[in-house]
Design brief:
Layout lengths: L13 H10 L3 H13 L3 H12 L2 E2 H8 L3 H13 L3 E6 L2 E6 L2 H15 L2
Antiparallel strand pairs: 1-3, 2-3
Length: 118
C-alpha cells in the first residue's frame, strides 16, 4: 500500500485557514455540486450528452444512435433533466431533447482536457 506524505511537524497556518473559512461555500451548495458531478459519473449519460452536442433529438433517435432501448434512454434523460443538464420541447407527438445550456458542454470539455493532460 502506498504511503502519503505528511508534514513532519504540526503547524496550523491561521491566515490560510481564515481565507479558506471565508471562501468555503455553504454545505448545501457543496452537496448540490457533489450531486451534479454524480450525474456525470455514468457513461450512458455522457454518451447521451455527446449526441446532444450535435443535434436536438427525440428518444427514438437517441435509442437508435446508442443502440439502447427507449426505456433505458428515457430513464437517463429523466435524471439529466432533473439536474437541469437537458431540456425538452414537444413538437406534435414527439418530444425533442437538447442541452440545457452551454455550461454542459463546458463541463464536459474541461473534463476531457483534464484527462488528456500528461
Amino acid at each position: 500500500m502506498a504511503e502519503f506524505e505528511c508534514c513532519e511537524t504540526t503547524e496550523v497556518h491561521e491566515e490560510l485557514l481564515k481565507i479558506v473559512n471565508e471562501t468555503m461555500p455553504e454545505e448545501t451548495e457543496l452537496y448540490d455540486l457533489a450531486e451534479l458531478f454524480k450525474v456525470f459519473g455514468d457513461s450512458t449519460r455522457i454518451r447521451i450528452l455527446f449526441v446532444l452536442f450535435e443535434a436536438e433529438v427525440c428518444v427514438c433517435d437517441l435509442a437508435q444512435a446508442l443502440n439502447m432501448t427507449q426505456s433505458a434512454i428515457s430513464h437517463q434523460l429523466r435524471i439529466l433533466k432533473q439536474n437541469k443538464l437537458v431540456k425538452s420541447r414537444r413538437e406534435g407527438k414527439s418530444i425533442f431533447y437538447s442541452l440545457a445550456d452551454e455550461h454542459v458542454r463546458t463541463i464536459i470539455d474541461q473534463g476531457r482536457e483534464h484527462i488528456e493532460e500528461d
